[in-house]
Amino acid sequence: MNKKLIKKVRRSFKEHFKTKALQVFSPGRINLIGEHTDYNEGFVFPAAINKGIALSIQQSEANKCQVFALDKEVMYEFTLSENEPIVNGGWRNYILGVVSELEKLGLKLGNFNAVFAGNIPSGAGLSSSAALENAFVYGLNELFALRLSKKDMILISQKAEHNFAGVQCGIMDQYASMFGVKNSALLLDCRTVTAKTYRIDFKKYKLLLFNTNVAHELSESAYNDRRTVCESISKHLNIKALRDATHKDLEGIQKEVSAEDFQKALYIIEENQRVHAFAKAIKKNKLKKLGKLMYASHAGLSEQYKVSCPELDFLVHRAKENPNVLGARMMGGGFGGCTINLVLKGAAEEFENEITSKFLNEFGMECTVYQVELSKGTHIIK
Ligand code: GLA
Question: Is residue 227 within 8 Å of 35, Cβ to Cβ?
Answer without folding.
Answer: no
